[in-house]
Amino acid sequence: MSKLYSILVSLILTISIFAQAPQQFSYQAVVRGANNELVVNKQVGMRISLLQGSNTGNAVYIETHTPISNANGLVSISIGNGAVISGAFTAIDWSKGPYFVKTETDVTGSINYTLQTTNQLLSVPYALFSANDKDDQKLTVSSTGDTLYLQNGGYVIIPGISSANPKPKPTSGYGPNITDIDGNTYKTVYIGTQQWMAENLKVSKLNDGTIIPLVVNIQPSNFTPSVWAKLSTMAYTYFNNDPINNAEYGKLYNGIVINSGKVCPTNWHVPSKNEWDKLISYLGDTLSAGWKMKETGSLHWSVLSTNKPATNTSLFTALPGGALISGATGNTNNFWGINEHATWWCSTESGDKQKFIGYLLSSYDKGLISNRFQPKTNGYSIRCIKD
After folding, report:
1. What is the pLDDT of residues 178-225, one digit of tens each?
2. Which residues are registered as beta bridge partners of 32?
3. Is the dihedral of CA 370, 233, 213, 210 positive or negative?
4. Gyration radius (Cα) of the chain, Å
5. Which residues of 20-45 are buried (b: 16+ CB within 10 A; e: fewer)?
6. In the chain, which residue ranges form alpha helices assigned H by DSSP?
7. Residue 120 and residue 111: Cα distance in Å, rounded?
């Protein structure tokens, strides 16, 4: 079977103070015959199509060539300088890519094209791009010599080498700190494909400036409804109503705050159940993820015997800030679990719209992290995730 190997798409750039557009670019390929032998020193027929949008897109330009291969089976042509079959090379709008080069070859030099390959143009030469613009563009070259910058904000890069190439998103380690509307600064961490806050939320306002009221929970007597159990509006408090707990554990928010969709810093949000589950799955499963999320040691986690295996390899640094929990009847609220349990809201509601899922990480359950629907009158911590 004959084969065609496209080995290079070379984009010709003319660098000057004001570039003039060379209406062509070079293309090279190696042609092999039926026995996988190089087709050397022989004329071959080639049909070139420029496809727009995908490797099966519409052909905006088609031309033919009859180059002669060299002693290594290499053929070299200039696309834009062949015998035109359809389209106009000068009319191609390079800003509306991506574009693909489809090459069809006849090793006998005729037009019985039996070999075919398609390659994407990974960048468009500055001169061809600017030819579609009414204004001349001035070129500047990066200090590393691998990027050409245009005065309109565009640039031409060498794929895979240029510092202008998008950097891959990390899958572990700390990310840049973020700041909320109150000026609180938080560490962030990459875990798999996600980016999380590595600290509990401490903000007292929504990100649009709306104040979240501080509501002190007064423990009722005789199981009469508490202040928090009767709330129908946003609220936050501190564990045991003591602001000293804010510095390490953050605030406890009722579920009504989640409905606002604005409690996290801009471009961040309260994670959904799917996002929580994705985190847990990446770290292993519900039986082991907790060890990789908990802060190590017993400075905050009081049950050393069960927290001792904690590694915090994810850098999530879960702290046991406790919660404000409704009683069995929903009429009472009690502060519960500091130094023993970490609790966080997620944004997924139950069918009755009165409950959100809460996630729990406990000292007593080894590495287990679990979830269940909880009344919106509970007070839980919040960890935000990047949009």
Report:
1. 999 999 999 999 999 999 999 999 999 999 999 999 998 766 554 455
2. 3, 38
3. positive
4. 31
5. ebbbbbebebbbbeeeeebbeebebb
6. 126-130, 246-249, 256-259, 273-283, 289-293, 304-307
7. 24
Peptide bond into 168 cis (omega under 30): no
What number of H helices and E strands is found in the chain? 6, 24
Q: Which residues on neighbouring strands pair with residue 30, listed in sequence order?
A: 5, 74
Residue-wise pLDDT for 86-123, tens only, equals 999 888 887 777 888 898 988 888 998 888 888 887 65
**138: nearest Cα among 23, 130, 128:** 130
Strand ranges of the sheet holding 99-106, from the earlier edge strand across to the other edge: 83-87, 58-65, 45-52, 99-106, 115-120
Token pair, residue 283, equals 């770290």
Position 301 scores a pLDDT of 84
| Per-residue pLDDT, 71 | 87
Give dist(CA 238, CA 245) in Å, integer: 6
Tell me how far apart the alpha carbons of residues 111 and 261 are, in angstroms, rounded to a whole number: 63
Residues of the chain with pLDDT under 70: 1-23, 34, 122-167, 218-226, 303-308, 326-333, 353, 364-366
- Number of C-beta neighbours around residue 136 at 10 A: 11
